[in-house]
Write a structure and sequence with these properties.
It is a single chain. The chain has strands spanning 4-10, 25-33, 37-41, 47-52, 59-64, 73-74, 86-89, 95-97, 101-104, 110-116, 119-126, 130-133, 143-148, 154-158, 165-170, 173-176, 185-191, 197-203, 206-213, 217-222, 227-235, 241-247, 250-257, 261-264, 275-283, 289-295, 316-322. The protein starts with a strand and ends with a strand. The protein has one domain (4-322): Neuraminidase (6 Propeller). The protein is an all-beta fold. It has no helices and 27 strands. The radius of gyration is 19 Å and the shape is globular. Strand 13 and strand 14 (154-158) form a beta hairpin. The strands form seven sheets. A five-stranded antiparallel β-sheet has the order 1-2-27-26-25, with no helix packed on it.
């Protein structure tokens, strides 16, 4: 059954709200989603991911519609398939399939990767052109596209002669976004409609969340106090970034803005006693945040390695919605 509680977040302007008054208190309604693994969020509050079909016990691509989240819609699977999962949803409610396709924009253009004799290659699919190989960086032997914005700019990761790199594809051009100083590789998570990209850079110190923009290049977003690793997983068009920061005591969900820096969402909000927000997976332009939470102590990813796309989630998932 869906549980709904109200929490209060004390935030500064621009953190998770569009109000301008510094220090204003914002009320959020936190809705616990039925069992499943949510992956992406659109601006209407519809959530795409995967969930169990009660009658059959199968894991199927699932949509939690904003008007009826108590009864998620299972989308089925291809003939002969063992399971399905949705990892992208646009504002028209169209979804794409986890495992190969990871992002979809307002025009229904889809990105992901395709595997074959030549290895894994990022692709862009449109109704007009079909599947198009986006290519790799010089010296690389694989690539994967993770997201696409409404201007057909594509974010992803490509192997290169110097290691894995977060990349931006624009038209037929691939751009190496680099890595943070001292690190060895980087991976992109998502892109907004301004062309800003978030992800994580990896090296001897672990992982660090980054924000890349055309104006500033790659910026280290840091870690929460006591943390040793962080991953940026979502960004909206206002530039608010969400993700997860890891320490020896476990994972904590964060939100980052230019005005306030990185903030632990657990410092200001809780659902019920014993529930910890461990990962903020996505944020939309309404300020809604797709969260993953755990009862009791949730262990960190330990090695600092990123969880794979659509990885098994903690026991509970939540959607934070700004109250009117």
């Amino acid at each position: 059954m869906t549980s709904v509680v109200t929490v209060i977040l004390a935030v500064t302007a621009g953190v998770v709200t569009f109000r301008e008054t510094l220090g204003e208190t914002t009320a959020y309604t936190v809705s616990e989603l039925p069992a499943g693994v949510p992956c992406r969020l659109n601006d209407f509050g519809d959530v795409a991911g995967k969930g169990g079909d009660s009658p059959s016990g199968e894991i199927l691509a699932t949509i939690w519609h904003h008007g009826n989240r108590r009864h998620p819609k299972h989308l089925g699977k291809l003939h002969g398939g063992e399971y399905s999962s949705a990892s992208g949803i646009n504002d028209a409610g169209e979804v794409d399939n986890c495992g190969q396709a990871f992002g979809i924009n307002r025009d229904g253009h889809v990105v992901g990767y395709s595997s074959g004799p030549n290895g894994k290659r990022a692709f862009l699919w449109t109704r007009r052109t079909g599947v198009r190989n986006l290519g790799v960086l010089p010296g690389g032997n694989y690539s994967s596209a993770c997201d696409i914005n409404d201007w057909d700019q594509v974010a992803g990761t490509s192997a290169s002669a110097a290691g894995d790199r977060a990349v931006l594809w624009t038209n037929t051009n691939i751009r190496d976004l680099g890595r943070l100083p001292g690190d060895e590789s980087s991976e992109a998570s998502t892109i907004n409609n301004n062309g800003d990209i978030v992800g994580y850079s990896k090296g001897p110190r672990g992982m660090r969340a980054f924000l890349w923009t055309e104006a500033t290049g790659m910026q280290d977003l840091g870690v929460l106090p006591g943390g040793n690793s962080s991953r940026a997983l979502g960004i909206n068009d206002m530039g608010a970034v969400v993700g997860s920061s890891t320490s020896s005591s476990g994972d904590r969900a964060f939100i980052w803005t230019k005005e306030a820096g990185m903030r632990d969402l657990n410092n200001s909000a809780s659902v019920t006693s014993g529930v910890m927000f461990v990962e903020a997976h996505a944020i939309n332009n309404r300020g809604q945040i797709l969260m993953m939470g755990s009862s009791g102590t949730h262990g960190s990813h330990g090695t600092g390695e990123a969880a794979p796309q659509c990885a098994p989630a903690p026991p509970s998932s939540f959607l934070l919605t700004p109250s009117p």
